[in-house]
Amino acid sequence: MKQGRPSPYDPNLHPAYAKALAIRGLTNEEIAAKIGIAKGTLQEWIKKYPDLRDSIKEGKGPADARVEMALYKRALGYEVEETRALVVGNGESAHVRMVDETRHIPADPRSCIHWLNNRAPDRWREKQEIEHTGKDGGPIEIMRMSDNELEHRAKQILSRRTGNTD
Fold first, then answer.
1. pLDDT per residue as tens digits for the range 60-72
2. Model confidence pTM above 0.90
């Protein structure tokens, strides 16, 4: 026999509601808040109820696709049709005429970089790898010195820099 309070999860309500919220672009944390539960509870429900998990996943798909398309358009630039008000004439003969025009939205370099970093990371990643080598490309030599040897060597280097021969 089960003990404890029954779950407020409703299979007839929560999957459809969560899907609708995901379609609008809400995060899991925001979906949980709208449902009136903690984010951790939503995570538990997602693990426990495949219908809820699948609904949220289905809802996020179109929202993610819209954002991807917007990023893609922004990376390349695009044309937009606009209607603007144009004042024709002056004084009492002035009147407003609505004019349709095409405006070019230029490509956004940051969108291009973001797109390429994620789509072709082998060629466009921002992470740089620097390899250190020793003389003539060989391994780096590590010298072991006692404290006295190290102190003597440091004094030599300092004396060369300052011109002291003490």
1. 998 889 889 999 9
2. no
